[in-house]
Write a structure and sequence with these properties.
Elements (H helix, E strand, L loop, with lengths): L2 E9 L16 H13 L6 E2 L8 E11 L5 H14 L10 E9 L11 E10 L12 E3 L5 H11 L1 E4 L15 E12 L2 E8 L6 H13 L7 H8 L14 E7 L8
Parallel strand pairs: 3-10, 5-6
Antiparallel strand pairs: 1-3, 1-4, 2-3, 5-9, 5-10, 7-8, 8-9
Helix pairs in contact: 3-4, 3-5
Length: about 260
């Protein structure tokens, strides 16, 4: 009898062309489906919560699938992780994809449609010294950033707004571009800045455009109080630049609405 399994997945997106399967490019979904299908000897199709772009990472991506799984669910993560490592070359190779946990859900559960919100983290390294070993994992900004101004601007972006100005140009039209940001925090530890964004949903490239706009505020190119004008414009050209993908991490997916307010 088929079980409905929900996975929590972490991955290093540097070597993948995003989450969503593509016929001619390596993707996280495609790689994981291949490994799971081989392991369970049946075709496995994953329903992912977020279609992260090429170069974007995940600490807590979620995906569900249905299959007649004869492995105890509590052992599933370890078994799949062993299979993932077995795909890598070299005795000490570590897979760039890891199952953090697995759990069984009711038959009607769907990882994407039942999600109530997400938290993304964007990492910025603000220093003139370039660390080449971090080039795929942080956005390096050499100019000094005014973090107080960035926090002031972030406060104006929190809440329920029409975020059309923060949606990538040419995106697929949506019924509504109104979204709610529950928390928007800028944390700092030495030269590492982390923007934590929790919302009920995000438009295409929304977090990267929010980040790029806040960086432009930190550089003094945009005044914090202009955030209201940018929101009201409902025009992508009004906002700042799009931050690169490699500083972005899908941190957490929420299935209980109450978690969004925590």
């Amino acid at each position: 009898m088929d079980k409905n399994i929900l996975l929590k997945i972490a991955y290093d997106g540097a070597g993948f062309h995003g989450w969503q399967r593509q016929p001619d490019k390596p993707t996280v979904q495609g790689h994981l489906e291949t490994v799971l299908s081989r392991l369970f000897k049946t075709e496995i199709l994953l329903n992912g919560t977020s279609r992260t772009d090429a170069g974007v990472h995940a600490l807590g991506q979620r995906a569900s699938f249905k299959a007649d799984v004869n492995i105890p669910v509590e052992k599933l993560a370890r078994v799949v992780n062993n299979a993932l490592c077995g795909c890598e070359k070299g005795s000490f190779a570590i897979s760039p994809v890891r199952i953090v946990e697995a759990e069984e859900k009711p038959p009607e559960f769907h990882a994407r449609f039942d999600a109530r919100g997400k938290t993304y983290i964007y990492k910025i390294r603000n220093t003139q010294t370039i660390d080449i070993f971090q080039r795929n994992y942080v956005y390096h900004v050499a100019e000094p950033l005014d973090t107080d101004a960035m926090r002031q601007a972030a406060k104006l972006l929190a809440g329920t707004h029409d975020f059309k100005s923060f949606e990538a140009s040419g995106s697929t039209p949506r019924e509504s571009t109104v979204r709610t940001i529950y928390r928007l925090e800028l944390l700092q530890k030495e030269d590492l800045l982390e923007l934590h964004v929790t919302g009920d949903g995000f438009l295409y490239n929304m977090v990267r455009i929010l980040t790029g706009t806040l960086v432009d505020v930190g550089r003094g190119r945009i005044c914090p109080e202009q955030m209201t004008e940018i929101l009201d414009a409902k025009d992508r050209q009004a906002a700042g630049h799009t931050a690169p993908p490699f500083g972005l991490y899908l941190a957490k997916v929420y299935y209980e609405e109450g978690e969004l307010y925590g």
